[in-house]
Design a protein that fits this description.
The chain is an alpha/beta fold. The chain has one domain: Response regulator (Rossmann fold, 3-Layer(aba) Sandwich), CATH 3.40.50. Helices cover about 40% and strands about 20% of the residues. It has 5 helices and 5 strands, in the order H-E-H-E-H-E-H-E-E-H. Strands 2-1-3-4-5 form a 5-stranded parallel sheet, with helices on one face. The termini are far apart.
């Protein structure tokens, strides 16, 4: 090996080193918060939710964290206060998206969250409860699935 080849190889390696270091960036970790209106049980069917996220390319533990919050009892007289406190705690944690299940949790999140996207699950009459302005165009940071779409809408779907 002669001196020219050695110096040429050394120069090439030195010039390409910054580009190699830039290619190894860390992946962003997305944070999903889930606020439930009911107590968390062992039978909670989160496997389908996590499987849908895996199908979209998100992997819990690698590029995704999911944090659940829920009241401790089904019939707690202070459930609305507790949900408001949990929603306020979640607002301070800066999640990328909040999933709120059932109307009490959706109402608590709506009062607390201003800019965080919210996905409602199992909402009953979201327009009547003031969660969204209409079902076709929600008009806010809240979107999601309804439990009851009403009799006239069911007839339209059947037609």
């Amino acid at each position: 090996m002669n001196r020219r080849m050695f110096l040429g190889g050394l120069t090439f390696w030195r010039l390409s080193a910054p580009f190699v270091g830039e290619a190894q960036q860390t992946a962003r970790i997305y944070r999903v918060g889930c606020l439930l209106s009911f107590p968390r049980t062992r039978e909670l069917p989160l496997e389908a939710f996590e499987q849908g996220l895996r199908d979209a390319g998100y992997r819990p533990g690698l590029n995704l964290t999911i944090e659940l919050r829920s009241p401790l009892s089904w019939v707690d007289p202070r459930r609305d206060e507790l949900l408001a406190g949990l929603a306020a705690e979640m607002a301070g944690r800066r999640f990328d998206v909040i999933v709120a299940a059932w109307n009490p949790a959706i109402a608590a999140v709506r009062r607390t969250m201003a800019n965080t996207p919210v996905v409602m699950v199992g909402a009953i009459d979201p327009v009547g409860n003031g969660f969204v302005s209409s079902t076709s165009r929600p008009g806010s940071n809240i979107t999601g699935l309804m439990w009851d779409i009403g009799f006239t809408k069911q007839l339209d779907v059947l037609r």
